[in-house]
Write a structure and sequence with these properties.
Elements (H helix, E strand, L loop, with lengths): L6 E4 L4 E2 L3 E2 L1 H14 L4 E5 L11 E8 L4 E8 L5 E5 L3 E3 H12 L3 E4 L4 E3 L5 E8 L2 E9 L7 E5 L1
Antiparallel strand pairs: 1-7, 2-3, 4-5, 5-6, 6-7, 8-10, 9-11, 11-12, 12-13
């Protein structure tokens, strides 16, 4: 399976009052991008009153709605623009669906309550699966933080 990191260049300026980044606007931009990738975001928190300084690096912290925490590395660019990248990888459910389809050769539908999940060692996710009309449940178990080892177990 293939796993992803979320890099993003925010092309909008996050300048507030001419000298500090607008943290709430940055938080909203990060949340919206991650939601578009299929993650369900509860919150993102970035440092307040961050001075505008090209090359400045800092982190924002976030939490998925099911409680999994993540970290976003942020770098200031020219004029208050920023680029950012989530430290953790995530697993799109579409990759699980494709993996099961490849193994079974059948028509597959997978419902995991979200379209993607942050990979964290020990994390378990239960999904409903239908293969050629037969319904069951599976549990995904993340055995490492890189996403190299994920077990699928039928429940």
């Amino acid at each position: 399976m293939t796993f992803f990191r979320v890099p993003a260049l925010i092309a909008v300026s996050f300048v507030f009052a001419g000298c500090t980044l607008d943290a709430s606007k940055l938080e909203k931009g990060i949340s919206e991008k991650l939601e578009k990738e299929g993650l369900h975001i509860e919150r993102v928190t970035c440092p307040k009153d961050r001075k505008i300084k090209e090359g400045d690096e800092f982190t924002c912290e976030g939490t998925e709605k099911d409680g999994e925490d993540f970290t976003v590395d942020v770098t200031q660019k020219k004029g208050g623009d920023v680029s950012w990248e989530m430290q953790e990888k995530f697993l799109p459910v579409s990759k699980v669906k494709n993996h099961i389809a490849d193994k079974t050769g059948g028509k597959v539908d997978v419902d995991c309550e979200a379209d993607a999940f942050i990979i964290a060692k020990g994390r378990k996710i239960t999904c409903k699966v239908e293969v050629d009309g037969k319904k069951s449940k599976i549990q995904l178990t993340m055995n490492d933080t890189k996403g190299d080892e994920i077990s699928l177990t039928e429940l």
